Structures are given as structure tokens and as C-alpha cells.
């Protein structure tokens, strides 16, 4: 039951943490069910899928882009996206700023940090994130806000390793949160999925991105 799963996860969250229901590959009908159960934050990993679903669902939904984003697709989500979790370059941030300005919006963004012990995951290294946050060009980007970090732990059963990766990300978050720039206001740490969100919460996550634990496994 979607509603039961949502209520159970919501009940386990500290009051500063939010559930992002990851709805990739799931139908609009299932998303309506989640909406009725009180979940109004959806995460999609593909621009096209998000753009197709958004007009079919209530307007008060928060849309979170959690997958890799190409610069040439930013324009499609700029009118409505709430938070982009997957910023991995200054160039991409500049494009988000440009498209946000066209819609007179300020789009919130997270830097995706590479924390996993795997080659396939996107993201910035801690050094690259620090360099980006100190880049002089950042000051001109008045239509974006950098509000924190996102990371994916290694896909492993080794809880100690997952915990260590999340802990490292939290430490980086605390370190980078001291940087003072007009459009940088760190408050969100997006970490944790179905298999590891409990560990992520223990390590300081403020946003868990949960799909299969709510909607069942994807094909
Ligand atoms: C698919 C996905 C999730 C959710 O994964 P589940 O294991 O189904 O909870 C979370 N974050 C990202 C970036 C994803 O692509």
C-alpha cells in the first residue's frame, strides 16, 4: 500500500527532514495515490518524463530533478522545477540561471558530490565543489540559490561503508556551509534512498529520496 508506506516513512523522519517520493517509471495514477496520501514532493531522474507528468498533476506539487541534467534540457523544467539535486558544473549552473531569469524565478540547486566507490556515478569531488563555490562568476547568478549537497552512496550491503560515505558528505556539507556568497545558503543535505535512508537520517540527511520502498520495485 502506497499510503501506508508513505505514512510509515514520514513518521520516521525528524521534523527537519523531508521525503521526496521518487516516481521515475511510475504512472500518473500511482502518483495521484501518493498525492492523496499526503506526499506532495516528487523526484524524477529524466527531464522528459517530468515534463510529461507535471501538467497532469496538481499545481502545488514540488518537482525535484534528481538525475543527471544536460544543459540543453534545462529550459524544459525551468518554468516549474522546485529543486535541482544534480548540479555538477558551473556551466550547468549558468544555464539554470539563464533559464530561471526568463521565467522571473529563482531556482534552488544542490551540488551533486561523488561519494561512492563506483565509476558510474556523476558528481563533483569535494575539491571541485569548493572551487565552484569560490568561483567569481557565481556572484552574477542572481536567479539561482545553492542550498546544499546531494550524494549517492555505493550500492553495497556493507552498512559501515555506506555510513562512512554519508558521514563524509555531512562533514563536507558543514565545511562548505561556512562559505559566504550572496546566492549560497546551505541548509539541505539530500542523501538516502530506499535501501539506506535510515542510515542517511542518522548521519544528518535533510532529504531522503525514496522510490521502491513506496511504489515497489521498478522493471
Ligand atoms: C532512483 C533514485 C532514487 C530512489 O531509489 P530507490 O532505491 O527506488 O529508493 C534516489 N535517488 C536517485 C538519484 C535515483 O535515481
Description of the structure:
It contains 9 helices and 8 strands. With 219 residues, the protein is of the alpha/beta class. The protein has one domain: TIM Barrel (Alpha-Beta Barrel). Strands 7-6-5-4-3-2-1-8 form an 8-stranded parallel beta sheet. Strand 2, helix 3 and strand 3 form a beta-alpha-beta unit. The two termini are 18 Å apart. The site of pyridoxal-5'-phosphate (PLP) has 14 residues, from strand 8 and helix 9.
Key attributes of the depicted protein:
219 residues; alpha/beta; TIM Barrel; eight-stranded parallel sheet; 37% helix; globular; binds pyridoxal-5'-phosphate
Topology:
Blueprint: H1 2-12, E1 18-22, H2 28-36, E2 41-44, H3 47-53, E3 62-65, H4 74-77, E4 83-87, H5 90-102, E5 107-113, H6 126-134, E6 144-151, H7 159-176, E7 184-191, H8 197-202, E8 207-210, H9 212-215
Parallel strand pairs: 1-2, 1-8, 2-3, 3-4, 4-5, 5-6, 6-7
Bound molecules: pyridoxal-5'-phosphate.
Pyridoxal-5'-phosphate (PLP) binds at residues 22, 24, 45, 66-67, 152, 193-195, 209-213.
Q: How many distinct beta strands?
A: 8
Q: Rough shape?
A: globular
Radius of gyration: 17 Å
CATH topology: TIM Barrel
The percent range for strand residues is 15-25%
Strand order, largest beta sheet: 7-6-5-4-3-2-1-8
Given as residue ranges, the uncertain stretches (5+ residues, pLDDT < 50) are none
List the ligand species: pyridoxal-5'-phosphate
The structure class reads: alpha/beta
Distance between the termini: 18 Å
Largest sheet: 8 strands, parallel
* Helical residue percent band: 25-40%
Overall pLDDT: 97
What would CATH call the class?
Alpha Beta
Corresponding CATH architecture: Alpha-Beta Barrel
Number of domains: 1
User: Topology as H/E string?
Assistant: HEHEHEHEHEHEHEHEH
